[in-house]
Amino acid sequence: MAVMLKGRLVASNQYDSAEPVRLRFELTNDGDEDLYVLKWYTPLEGLNSDCLTVLRNGRTKVPYDGPMAKRGNPGPDDYVLIPAGQTVVADVDVSESYAVSKPADYQVELNIPALERVPAPSAADKSAVLAQAKSAPHLEALTGGGTQFTVRKGPLQLPTRGQAARTVSESMSKAKEADSSTGAAGRAAGPLPPNFIGGTASQRAQATKAHTDGFSLCEAALASLANDARYKEWFGAYTAARFKKVKAVYTNIRDRMRTVTFTYDLSGAGCKSGWFAYTHKGDTRIWFCGNFWTAPATGTDSKAGTVVHEHSHSDANTDDLAYGQTNARALAAGQPDQAVRNADNYEYYAGG
Hints:
33% of the residues lie in helices and 26% in strands.
């Protein structure tokens, strides 16, 4: 049976810089079988991932600036059924996650490198079908479907969610450089103690331990980093450039945790179903979500691993391109240039 998913973006011709830039995403199943499609990493879940390519005036790439989340395994509600010949739609506000409020001409296309789909037999339990598919999901790229629009000057420009979060974080955090007079002994110290928003005494204790354990995982990863089988498992075939990138990510995490006071938000604000945590690139605040509290302290998909994952975003500019160990290993084997950008790969190499 032929499988053919096509995506399309639809926009108005013009927006004011003070108004949201709303687009419509259409996903059509032009194949001859019904499909379940994972909403994650697509506009079907809102712009909670870098699923668009946005250009300003045809030349300047506008980076994604929305939440960077560690996710668990998707549940049945994270998939949408698209019958053969049918279309699903979602309206999204591009200005929430991309800085498109600056007056200019914009071109937007889809950037979904691994759309996950599962055949949907007509007489089958949805949960059973999806559970079986988790071991070998069908992944395909979905690009193109572009549109364009102009943003004219208005009374103000809307901040992205990342910009708004960093503004608040900067007013709360007490970033400070390590005292250079302490020399090597000072540099060898552990991470600075974190601040907290919300949470019980027990939750704050768990978060403090995760902060320290995550830092230890990062130091251990740096100490063991070598061109060996474990490196290949999570980052793929060795090249000097990719190895340098991996070392730089862990180094940035370690150094920033030593020199910047981070805030862990335990209120659950902004969390989505299935998330462990989220932050924004360059932020000093990290939100812990529902899956974090049920995770083990250490080990695979743990509290400590979540700290490594989220700090790789905030401290070292990593992305979320694939979730879970199966997909992270596949990324390393087939697309190592993507693996050295993916936060889960850093978490799992470090032992989280």
